[in-house]
Amino acid sequence: MQPRVSIVPERFQVNAFSAFDPSQMQYTFRHAAKRDLPMFSGNPEEWPMFIASFEYTTEEYGYNDVDNLDRLQKALKGKALESVRCLLMHPSNVPAVIRTLRMLYGRPEIIVHSLMNKVRAMPAPKQDRLNTLIDFGVAVQNLCATITATGLDEYMYNVALLHELTERLPPSLKLNWGCHQMSVSRVTLSSFNDWLNHLVQAASLPINHHQIALVEPPLFRYVPVTLHGNGCKVDTFAFLDDGSSATFVEHALVEELGLHGTPHPLCLWWTGNQKREEKNSVRVTLRVSGREKTGKMFKLPNVHTVQSLALPKQSLSAEKLQSTFEHLRGLKLNSYTDIVPRVLIGIDNCHLGNPLTYREGKSHEPVAAKTRLGWIVYGSLQTNIGDGAKGFLNHHSPQTCPCVHSNDDRIDIELKQYLAIDSLDDIVLIADNNLPRNCWPKGRVIEVVRANDGQVRRASVQTTSGIIERPATKIAVLDVYRQN
């Protein structure tokens, strides 16, 4: 590890500002054009320019402590001024002023951390807005340049920071970066900056083939399949998603197959703590096969239904892919146009997506893999092949949320959302876990038992079959009757 050094060139570093005996020429220059310092408010990013200007002009023009005190009083603002205000009363305190400012705002690690926070606060690069990529790349470049200048080389090997930066990239650039990593001997913040700087240069050019290659979305792991159930079959497409903890199918597709599953409300969870409830979800067992006539049929147990997977459209021209990429020639690939998968096969059925054999070309070229459901082509497209994938990934692999409760817990939770029993003659439903909800007994409250806090704890309900006593948590008030 290199020793930490000042970010100011050695010839500009001055320690004793009052020791100058200015020459006649310096004296003339000093009074002919007094050089004001750049403003400094306490922002660590402003420190390198401020201290370089202070030390250079002090040496070059022979400024003494009296001159520098006047210049500092004009230049310091905000937090910087407040931190040394008491020292700005006498010229002899000028060296102490500089030492204090350097300690508070000029230490190399403070400057680096300030730039790191600036990069973190920037908007993430967007697939369809190249200016966001340029701004992000310039910020990373400034950070790396400062790390190098300050000698804090250990930051170049900060794995957590590198992961944080790469996670902000759009999916196609993540894949591009992943391919680039295989071509470097050691992955560091410096190698990430070099790769990103190349993209920034391409994005800054007028529209040309570099820019087309940059924004070309990747091909996702879509495969044509046939779903079977109840004597019916439906041709569709599946997304092989190793990032999903479960397998999902659109509810309308299950209805087309004539299947009826077991009710199982879901709470889906994505990255960034995004959640979505699927209250009408059911759990079914499906059978799936590839489109080939001799395709083997596989069982998909515990598949959850959702209203819509909302996956991006994708097109694939086998002819153009094979004419562009030599390693794909001779494979039995299926062409398709603007398809949207209606099935997402997660890691619980990962054996269906595991490559039995595969072919790969150069970096940034798509990979072909033969799975149990057929051949798939996925990955980056180095050139614009016309009918390649036109959508971009706006999808995060769903997980079943850990807040999912058992059926009994769900009943209790939902009952607590009803109005509490607060009077006799309320019309209520009595929960019975052994009966479908539309068969729960209905009746009228004739007696209640209250606790010390006044809340109803138990109630007696008159039904057509007699009087039933239940805890309040097992009784749901029908608000429509109360209003009437």
UniProtKB/TrEMBL annotation:
**In this record, what's one Pfam family?**
DUF1759
Residues annotated as domain DUF5641: 424-478
Enumerate the transmembrane spans: none
Query: Could you tell me which InterPro entries the record lists for this protein?
Result: DUF1759, DUF5641
Identify the PANTHER family for this entry: PHD-TYPE DOMAIN-CONTAINING PROTEIN, RIBONUCLEASE H
User: How is this protein named in the record?
Assistant: DUF5641 domain-containing protein
Species this protein is from: Anopheles epiroticus
